[in-house]
Amino acid sequence: MTHTHVDGTTHTHTDGTTHTHADDTVHTHASGSVHTHAHGSTHTHPHHHENTKAVLNRMNRAIGHMEAVRTMIEDDRDCSEVLVQIAAVRSAINNIGKIILEDHISHCLVDAVETGDEQVIRDLNDAIDKFVK
Predict the structure, then answer these.
(1) Taking the model in full, what pTM does it have?
(2) Fewer Cβ atoms within 10 A, N terminus or C terminus of the chain?
(3) First to last CA, the chain
(4) Nearest-5° angle of CA 98, CA 102, CA 105?
């Protein structure tokens, strides 16, 4: 299947990918994910990722660390001990972000490349900029 976008880009798919173009552009991929592009190129697709359980487990641990930090502050614990625990929380949250990023690249970005969806790449670049600050 070959189609041409308004901007002149042409895509050919042999994997069952279908595209519908109108006011809203809908891309349905062979994998079942769907991207909807409307004014401003908003996209949606299912976000079922392989590592959801691992992310949730790590989130629970990070939340537990945060609760421990609050308790330490309430108990007037030594500032250096509190700072060490805050560093542990920051590290846990960064690792959660890394897992989500790896999952996003492996799934969402692959779908975007297959369909020529450059907005997903722009969104990823924006998210990375915010994540590494």
Answers:
(1) 0.57
(2) C
(3) 42
(4) 135
